[in-house]
Write a structure and sequence with these properties.
Blueprint lengths: L2 H14 L7 E4 L3 H15 L5 E4 L2 H10 L12 E6 L3 E2 L5 E2 L6 H9 L1 E9 L12 E5 L4 H10 L3 E4 L1 E2 L2 E2 L7 E6 L6 H9 L4 E4 L1 E2 L5 E6 L2 E6 L2
Parallel strand pairs: 1-2, 1-3, 3-6, 6-14
Antiparallel strand pairs: 4-5, 5-13, 7-11, 7-12, 8-11, 9-10, 14-15
Helix pairs in contact: 1-2, 2-3
The structure holds ribulose-5-phosphate.
Ribulose-5-phosphate binds next to helix 2 and helix 4.
């Protein structure tokens, strides 16, 4: 296992320790969240009683594989904690997410939780968001016009592909990955984009994160909301 993977395993395993008996847990998506679901599965085998709400079809499969019981978001009134990865984390714990295409469900599950715990390796921690292209979920109907409206704001949308065809999210939508350069006002940018008809959700997670566990050269560093 390479260093990056070891770091993901470390933060995923550490995050699983935040989960207590009886909790309802949002299960994030991506290769870091994989290790958290695996570690939770091990704790469930040892008797931990929890129910998970997966944020993607892939995470649902992992939960089944590792024996974490799951339910749908509609079946719970609230969640105790959501644990998820991220593509970028800035100094104010604002995030870019959606690299794995699960941003809409991830955001719905994040805001349903009392606590949002993010797990990343050091490479994801940045001074300013925007180096990573911002994923925006868009309805397929007329997507080209929506992309033009985003471009008219001065950005560069690229439709995400899966092989030769458009990548389709678990919700049947497409993703536009948008190069913004340095994002100095993430909340304002989100407000601008979400108002465009055809945009379903943006990958900007603003003022949602409580704690970030950062994997760093074999150790961890914990960042808390100020
Ligand atoms: C999926 C996400 C992921 O959390 C994000 O892309 C990080 O993934 P990874 O842990 O594989 O780097 O937002 O939509």
């Amino acid at each position: 296992m390479n260093e990056a993977e070891k770091s993901k395993m470390l933060v995923g395993t550490e995050a699983a320790k935040y989960v207590k008996d009886g909790m309802k847990v949002g299960l994030g998506s991506g290769s870091t969240a994989y290790w958290m679901v695996k570690a939770l599965g091990e704790r469930v085998q040892q008797g931990l009683d929890i129910i998970g709400v997966p944020t993607s079809a892939q995470t649902e499969k992992w939960a089944q594989e590792f024996g974490v019981p799951t339910t749908d978001l509609s079946e719970v009134s609230a969640l105790d904690i959501t644990i998820d990865g991220a593509d970028e984390v800035d100094q104010n714990l604002q995030l870019i997410k959606g690299g794995g295409g699960a941003l809409l469900r991830e955001k719905m599950v994040a805001i349903a939780a009392d606590k949002l715990l993010i797990i990343v390796d050091q490479s994801k921690v940045v001074d300013h968001l925007g180096e990573y292209p911002l994923p925006i979920e868009v309805v397929p109907f007329g997507w080209n016009l929506t992309a033009k409206r985003i471009a008219a704001l001065g950005y560069e949308p690229t439709i995400r592909l899966s092989g030769d065809t458009h990548y389709i999210t678990d919700n049947g939508n497409i993703i536009l990955d948008c190069k913004f350069g340095k994002i100095t006002q993430p909340a304002k940018l989100h407000e601008q984009l979400i108002q465009l008809v055809g945009v379903v959700e943006t990958g900007l997670f603003i003022n949602m994160t409580d704690t970030v566990i950062v994997g760093n050269q074999g150790g961890i560093n914990v960042l808390e909301k100020k």
